[in-house]
Every structure is written in C-alpha cells, then in structure tokens.
Amino acid sequence: MTFGGVLLLLILLSSLVPGVLIFFVAEQRRRLRTVLNMSGAVIKLLLVVVLLEGVREGLFFQLSFNVLPGLAFVLHADALSILFIALSAVLWLVTTIYAIGYLENSPNRSRFFGFFSLCVFTTTGIALAGNLFTFLIFYELLTLATYPLVVHRGTAPSLRAGRQYLIYTLGGGVALLIGVVGLNLLAGSQPFTPGGYLGVLAGQHDTELKILFVLMILGFGVKSALVPLHGWLPQAMVAPAPVSALLHAVAVVKAGAFGIVRLVQDVFGTGLLIYLDLLLVVLLLASVTIVYGSLRALMQTDIKRRLAFSTVSQVSYITLGVTLAGPIGFIGGLAHLVHQGLMKITLFFCAGNFAETLGVHRIDQLNGIGRRMPWTMAAFTVGALGMIGLPPMAGFISKWYLAQGALEVGQQWVIGVLILSSLLNMMYFLPVLYRAWFKPPMEQWPQERLKTRWETHLSLLLPPLFTALLALLAGLLAGMSTSPLAWAELITLRNYAL
Amino acid sequence: MDLSLHPHWAVWCIVVPLLASGLAVLVPRWGKTVGVVGALLTLLAVGGATLHLLAHGPQRIEIGGWGAPLGIQLQLTGPALMMLWMTALVSVPITLYACDYFVTRSQQLRFWPLWLLLWATMNMLYLSADLFNLYITLELISLVAVVLVALAGPKAIRAAIRYLLMNLLGSLCFLLAVALMYGAYGMLDIKMLAEQVEATPLTGLALALMSIGLLLKSALFPLHIWLPPAHAGAPAPVSAVLSALVVKASFYLMLLLWLTLYSSLVTHGLTTLIGVLGIGAILWGSVQALRAARLKQLVAYSTVAQLGYIGLAITLIDVAAWQPVLTFMIAHACAKGAMFLAAGNFQRAAGHDRMALISTALRALPVSVFAFALAGVSLIGLPPSGGFLAKWLLLSAALDSGRWLIALALVGSGLLTALYIFRVLERAMRPGANLQPVGRVSPLMEWSAFGLGLLAILLGFAGVGITQIVAEWPV
Known about the structure:
Chain A is mostly helical.
C-alpha cells in the first residue's frame, strides 16, 4: 500500500475508530468521551491539511481493491474531494464542540456521539469515493448513520419523522442502486474522471443512459432535497440542533449535491448530457426548487422550519451551478457548496442557542433578542445577510458567479431566478433581523435558563461565532489563494483543462 | 506437512460432529464441552476441505472402497464447500450461544446430541453424490429438527407436529421421485444419471415430485404454513438453526438437481413459476412480518419473505447459476441466525417477546440491538454486507438479461424488508422505564449474536473468494 493510500485510510479511521469506541464509553464518563471526540476531530483535521497540500501540489492519492471480479472499491482524493472533505473536517470539529455543550446532562450521549462520528466517517467516505460503487456504499451508510440521530429523542414525532426519512432516503437509494448497476453493466466499474467517462457510449445506448441518469438524479435528489423529493427535510427538524446543523450543512443534503456534481461532471460529462437533452431538465428542476423553497420558507413561523426550507432552496444553487455546464457557473456552484455550509451551520447553531437558552422556537418570540443575546444574534445576522447575498458576504460571491455563468451559457432567465430568490430571501430574513434588533423584548422569555457569565454556555456560543467569522472571511477574502472560491477555481481549471 | 494433501477432510466434516454427537449421548455431563470442541474441530475440517479443493480441485471419495453404482460416494465441489462454510460459520456462534441459553438439565441432555447430529446430517447432505443418500439425509434432518423444536416444551408440540407432517409429506414426494428415477434408469448416482437422463414424461413426473417435496421442505410460499409457528415457537438457538440452515439444505438440493440432473427439463416457464411464488412469498411474508404481534413471529415471517427472494434468484439461474444464490443463502444464514439469537436475548430478558412491550428489553441490551441491526442491514441489502453483494449480483444478472420486472421485485423487496426491520429498531429508541430482567442474558449470548451479525456484514468483502471457488469448481 502506498503512502497516499495509507493517508486516505487513516482519514477514514480517524472518525470510524472514535465512533466505535464511544459506543462502549459509559454514560457518565463525560471526559473520556470528550477526549475521544476531540482527538478524532483534531487528528482528522490535521490529516486533511496534509492531504490538501498534497493535492494542491498535484499529487494523486488512491487506494483500491476488488470486491467482486471487475468491481473495485476505490478511494481517491482529487481537488473536488478536498473541497468536501475540508468542509466536513472543519465543521465536524466545530459541531462536536457545540454538541458537547448542547447535550450536556441529556440521556444516551454515548449512542449519540457514536453515531455522530459514524456519520462523519460516511461523509468522509463520500468525499473520498473514487467510483460510483464506492460512492453508493458510503451514501447508503450515511442513511443508516443519520437515522439514529434524527430519532435521537425517541418521541412519537421524531420516530414518525425518522420513518419518513427512511422511506425517502431508502427509496432514493434504490433508484441510485439500479443506476449504478446499470452503468456498471454498460461501461464497467470506472473511476470518476473529470469530463466524464460515458461520452464514448453516445449514440449507442441513449435510451438506457437517459433512464439511468434520471434514476440516479432521483437518488441524489432525495438527499439534496430537490422538489418534489424534499418532504423529509422539514420533518427531520425534530432532531437535536447539532444534528440539524450537520444534516443541513455538511452531511446529508451536501452528500446529495456532491453526488450530483460527481454524476454530471465526472461520470456523464456535460457534453454527453447536453447531447442527451437532460441537462436543461435538471436545471429547471433546480430553479423550481430554489423558488419553491424560498416561498415555503416565507410561510413558516417556526425558526428551524424556516431555515429548513431555506436549505431546500439554497442547496439547489449547487445543482444549478453544475447544470449550467459552463466553467464560471461551475465555480459558483462549487463555492456555494462551502459557503452554504458555513452560513447554514451558523444559522442552525444560533437557532439552537435561542431554543436552549431562552426556549425561543418561533419567529414571533424573537422580539428584542439582540439585546439579550447580542453575540449569537450577530452571528445569525452574518449568516442571514450572507444567504441573501449581500456584498461582500460569501453568498454574494456564489450568486455573482452563478449569474455570470448563466450569461456565459446564454441562459439569461436564470438571472431572474437568482434575483427572485434573493428577494424572497430578504423577505424571510430581514423581518427576523428587524424583530431581533429593533423591537422591544417581551417581558419574559418562554423558558429561560439560569443566567451564566456569557449570554449562553461558552461551548454553544463560540462555534457560531467561529463559523460566522469563516463565512464572513470566505466572502471578504475570496480573492486569496486559500479561499473556497480559489479552490473551486482550481477544480474547474483541472476539470475543464483550461 | 502439507495439510491440503490429507485426502479425507470432507469425510471429517461429517464424522467429527457425528462422533461428538455420540460422545454427548454417552457422557451427558460433557455436553457443552463436547459441543464447543466438536464445533471448532468441524470448522477446522471445513478449512481443511477448502485447502484440499483449492489445491486439487473437486473430489470424489468412495466410502469403504465401493464405487458407484453400489457403494456410497461423497463429492466435494465448489457449491458444496460454500454450504459447508455457511453451516460452520453459523453453527459455531449458535453453539456458543446454546452453552448459556439452555438452563434446565433435561434440555441440555437432549440438545447437544441432537444438534451435533443435525450438523453432521446437513454436512452429509451437501457432500452426498447419490439420490438415495440424499433422501436419507433429508429425512434425518427433518426428524432431528422436529425433536429440537419440541424442546421448547408442551406449547411447541402442535407446531412440531405440524412441522413433522408437512416434512414427511415432502420426504414422501422425494422418495417417490427417487423410486421413479431408479426404475427408469437403474442408478442413483447424480453424475451418472445426469448423463443418462432423457426428457421423458416419467422423468418430468419425477422432477415435479422432487421439486414439490423440496419446496415443501424449503417453505416456499404457499407451502410455508408450517414454518412460522415452528420457527417462532422453538427455543432461540433452534430457531436460528432452522431458519438459517435447515431450510437452505432443501433449497440447495433443489438447485443442485435442477442444474445437473434436470437441466434439460427445467424450462423458462418452470423458473418463472418459482419466481411468481417468490414474489408472493416476499409480499405475504413482509406483510405478516409488519403485522406480527411477537418479535420471533416477525423474524420467522421474515424468513418466509427471504426464501421468496431465493425463488426470485432461481428465475435467473440460466444467466447467473450458483454464485448469487449461494451468496444470498450464506448472507441470509448469518443474518437470520443473528436475528433469532438477538430475539432470544430480548425474550429471555423480558420474559416475553410481545412487540408492544419489547422496547424495555431492547434498551437494556444494546449489543443485541446492534446484532439485530447489522443483520437487518444485510437482509435489507444495504452496503456493505453479504446481502448487498447478493443483491448486486442478482440485479446485474436481471438488468443484463433485460428482466426489468425481476429487478424491480429485487429492490422492492429490500424496501419492504426495511419497513419491518425498522419496526423493531425504532422501538430501541423510545425512552421509558428501565427493565426489570426476568431471565439472565450472559455476555456470551449477546456477543455470539453480535458476531454472527458482524459476519453478515463482513461477507460483503468476501465476494472475490466466493466467486473464485464457485466459478472454478461448479458441480
């Protein structure tokens, strides 16, 4: 096994091993569990940094063995893997800190953190998967690892949400499985290749390719919450806040979006998809989702549900960028994969803080909360303004590139979608900000916890501040060589061989 | 010393458990020790047989030096070896489990000799090369299995008797077919017969009788009615043996006969019929599992559904032959074994297995819940697991030959399975009061269930090995 292969394996093990060990940690041994959690997260981050530098140098990391004759399990790290894995490594660390504070004194913590680590293990596997077969394995494992987190509280509503989650995701998994098996029969088990590897089949198996592509988009569409496959996402809001944060920012919806990127760019290739007349369909679907998600968000009165529908809308920016099929739009979509993660996790952390500290769940309870919890609300504001796409926030960068990309390929109407969506974003975020900062607070918060030195527990306060800062910097310093945007440009350069 | 040179590993696979069974009768005090040592030595013999097959290819052994058509012959082929492995891998954890499960003296006295005898007979069936020998082993398996079911006490007697009657009927059909074949061709050796068989109406009748008999024993829908009460009513380790191993023996035999003896007579219509029955089994078994009021009933009906999956696989034998079916059988054996052992743990801890009240027991035994979950993952066919590998192979075969309906049935059945598996698992997530344990569940009982569940997952990485052995040395 090469050094590169060992590195990939270590990165996977850095979340698998702590995850398995944590299951055996007795409930009250808080410190041991924290040590396991944190050491896993930190080791992983360090390993990812090594990997990142290697990939930037142009090194190629790979590990593969045969599961069946002619069917390989492949891990590899290309520039696209790095984008996703770096996001998950950073946000896992932050979310772990947050979750430790959030779940203090609640039951079943070992079970929770065990599955939490397994969830990150599978996300990492998705990032490192080198072919569709491997991707499928981790994609399905992700469903299994997240289910216990969604139903963690075990109440009737959460079990119901869990059932719905399973029906959607396992159903999507079936569509994906048929697609993967079918492509495997048509073209063999090939690694992800920039520009796709199915182009040679054009003209021979058009019908099969069309069917298989639609099936796989359905499979990825469920997790990335493409309308009308998004129904599970708002339901899954019954999960504890750190889970929602992780589900929305890195794990589940991103896995779906990442799958679409891989499918369009590295399996079919945009050229073949344009030839098959399929790209426009997905582009339309993404546009509908963007507008529909925003409209539904506008109608919600619950903070977490509003954020959930906002996710439905925002994740489809990634799909939009990829299906525009031009390099600039692609940059925008990829950059948004990171930007949306940073902004949305900030928002969910803040929503969790409001609920945990003051018992505030609904938007009409937010009046004047900016005075009681100024730091949290400041982080929330950064996230919200970023989502709207106000310059120079990260969200603006994404939207700018997406709009340029739309012009580049001559799909002017997409700009209309972007503007409409930004308007709707304003309509559902600005009133929230106004209430929080300018309206007088209620006499009593719904369920206020004992006052602490800071506005809330420190391990709840620091994570959103940190991610808000990152979201801010991702926009302000987008021109620097270490920004998500620069990395998206690097991927695009390599993919389009410009 | 080159172990692969020893010529009689295959014989030891039968003799070791047989001797152990005899010893357990003679010295009942040593039951547990004899059981565990016997199990490990049998595993060793199967390992030896594998080395022999890898080094020297398929093997025929004449017992007592008498050749066919007069003497008894054994044959070791790739598929037979896989079945030996399946039996050994599942039997070792079950044996360990049984050490702590049976608490009363009278149960222990009867369990160990019978169980080891059953194991020897199953291995004998896989290695047998002639029809009469196969009939004998088939009959023995049924009889021993019935007595094992009756170990559960008076409440299981009805189920045991129903089991006995249905299986006797199956044996009778099989015996009739054997007689017809002997009358027509004057020989019983499968290999020699296969060269002689002609598509006459008489042979057709023999095929029909044989298939009905074997399907009865394999409990393929709608011939399954004896299975749920017997499998749900037996003691947990026995349920595991019956569901994981015993029903597979007759299915294996049917496949063997179809692919060798009757390959010229097995038509598309016949396999389609089996496929339709398979779909019926999947639907009926899953619905009943979803409605079951008791956990062990749920697991037993899951077996009915999963046997239907084998029925579906049979429609693909013209393009895929042994490999997917064998992979599926091994994966299902590990998973179902783990499930029944875990269910036995919950039942022991709670004193019952009613679904409505099972969640306290589930919460108290997390290791068993994990065992159940791992097994469930394989049954649903989610990666990485043996069940997924089998599904992948079957789905590839179905899509490659353009049988979309079969492909849809394959994946659809996975979703149905998920529904009833999570019906159990979500009960482990409910908060509530702590369990007041009724019976003791030892760590060995928990971890042997877990080990078996883990095996079902690890099988997902053994595809290359299975393919090699089955593809290189088919019957």
